[in-house]
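User:
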Amino acid sequence: MIFTNPRLIFPNEIRDGLELVAREGKIIAIREQTRLRSPRRPTARQAQAPREEIVDLARNYLAPGFIDLHVHGALGRDTMESSAESFRAICDFHANGGTTSLLLTTASAPLEKIVDVLNAVRDFTQRRARRSRPTSAIAGVHVEGPFISKAKCGAQREEFIQKPSLARVEQLLDHADVIKRITIAPELPGALEAIENFHAHGISVSGGHSDAFDEDTRAAFERGMRSVTHTFNCMSSARRRGVYRVGGLLEFALSEPQISCELIADGHHVSPTLTKMLYRAKGCGGICLVTDATAGAGLPDGSQFSLFGNDCVVEAGVCVLADRSALAGSAAQMIHLVRTMVSKVNVPLHEAVAMATQNPARAIGLDTKGRLAVGADADLVVLSPELDVLQTFSGGEEILSGQTLLSH
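Assistant: Predicted structure:
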């Protein structure tokens, strides 16, 4: 498959005059644009070669497929249902927003219920290769809760919040092949040992839903915490302790270059001013765009849904608890976040795309995803000049087909 006439989006620039070649799910060449010739009768050797498909992108953008590290649900379906039907619906919805890899995300619940999700995800991903219709790939699970702070629980159910005891941590580590990321409040008893344990097993540890002081977060960093969950939302910030003012999880994240910050840039969770502050502090390389989409994503305003037992509603394009006491995730797709960063924060398009591709891939060790490079997976998204998703490919297979593109 040869993608001609694209505007290729790399992390540091947008380039014209190139074409991209994909074969067997991988990018095999990025080269100078070749002039298209009229079809000729193939030679015997050419007739035996694999069929060559040319996709003329007509100077639309071609970017790596988006990677979302934090997805609870969509279209009334939730990860906690632990069903193939819910996983498929979630993946299909987010594929339409340009996402080609995602982490299904749990909520605070009895640990046995979270283990059910992990088993169901493992089974779903193992069977994915035998299904004929492609969709977004599930890269694993983000366990958000139950090891969080009751003071910063947000829309999570307080009654299921637990301390990370060794037995509970080991119960989750039995599924380290599926868990790619876990959110922990660093100040909890046993949290530092848990962070060290998860980090040693190759699981990305993110501080979040936390009321930690600066010294708690620094200790967590020393044990392996390298990111924070939905920056500015459900996390401690600077306050007085006695006569002194001390930082919290937010200030530590802003000041530490090695900390990667999730950001729900849906235009609701974080104001443009705060988003600009984060961008100035962390730069392009320190931000991972995440939707934190819940089951209300894709539903019209006024729709009611459940977040593992909490009644929620979609209101003015965002999800909230039914009593309006807290946000309950977003209703966004990844393309909405990229647009917000460009239009509201004045971030260059190539940097906004890097926040949705290269950065999250690096955060959870997806070495072959999130970039346009020879040898990388052919996970691709075609964007119009207005940043609408026109076409999406996962491993070179078309997920979303645009009507304006020419295929030969």
